[in-house]
Amino acid sequence: MTCPCGHHHSPRHHHAATGTPVALRRPMVALTGRLTCADAGQMMTALSLLPDHVALSRDEPGCLRFELWQDDDPLVWHLSELFVDADAFAAHGKRTADSPWGRESASIGRDFQRHEVIPVIRRETRQDLDAIDTLLRTAFGGDAEARLVRQLREDGDLSLSLVADAAGTIVGHAALSPLGADRPAFALAPVAVAPKARRLGIGAALVRQAVAWADEASVVVLGDPGYYGPLGFLPAPLDSPHAGPGLQMIGDLPHGSAIRHAAAFAGF
């Protein structure tokens, strides 16, 4: 079938990553496939116009991934796209149709497959480490949280590292590290969601999965009570350098007892 952006879609089953699905109100939309030029003239059109098309697509508020790469056959390009929902994908199609790329590339062959995507929560793998770094830097606007997670991992203190995987794109992350306390406890930090994927429920799903993994151990977080309160966290009257309204927990650590974060937090 053909969508407003000139894409020709054929159905194909998409195999999602294994994990706990995130209950989105609306699924994300992914597009994969290839562009095939008939001759050198079409290839030159693609080489001229695609860089701007890629940059503009990545800047769209609903675009989570836009990858385009040339095959060993220079007449062929492969693509992989991900959008937050069908409306974002439709907006991309409308912008593309009105762009120089959309107007001048209509004769280039297209074989694309569109499928719905539900992110899943799973444990990190070695292949995720660079993507986690990038997500944390993007989500927090700096390198501090990425350095914290790297140090926790290096020290052996990254008890749990969860990612939200949307068709191979890491859109969320949550970490648990051991907390020195009178009873078994973990610190929940950091929790991050890609800016374009916020307000979809991904962060809450990561937090719930982390708390479930902790089982009967307490989970302590430093964050906005307006966000963590509805997720079951209560004020934590504990002896900590971080004591205050933002210190919250799920669990039964004794009132006034001391807690100690992992060594990596000393420089955070």
List the helices and strands and how they pair.
Elements: E1 20-21, E2 28-36, H1 40-59, E3 63-70, E4 76-83, H2 86-97, H3 100-104, E5 109-117, E6 120-123, H4 129-140, H5 144-155, E7 160-166, E8 169-178, E9 185-193, H6 202-214, E10 218-222, H7 225-228, E11 234-235, E12 247-250
Parallel strand pairs: 9-10
Antiparallel strand pairs: 1-6, 2-4, 2-5, 3-4, 6-7, 7-8, 8-9, 10-12, 11-12
Helix pairs in contact: 4-5
Describe the 3D structure.
By secondary structure, this protein is of the alpha+beta class. 29% of the residues lie in helices and 29% in strands. The chain has 7 helices and 12 strands. The protein has helices spanning 40-59, 86-97, 100-104, 129-140, 144-155, 202-214, 225-228, and strands at residues 20-21, 28-36, 63-70, 76-83, 109-117, 120-123, 160-166, 169-178, 185-193, 218-222, 234-235, 247-250. The strands form 2 sheets. An 8-stranded mixed sheet has the order 1-6-7-8-9-10-12-11, with helices on both faces. A 4-stranded antiparallel sheet has the order 3-4-2-5, covered by helices on one side. Helix 6 links the parallel strand 9 (185-193) and strand 10 (218-222). Helix 4 runs antiparallel to helix 5. The longest helix is centred in the first third of the chain and has 20 residues, at 40-59. The model is unreliable at 1-15 (pLDDT under 50).
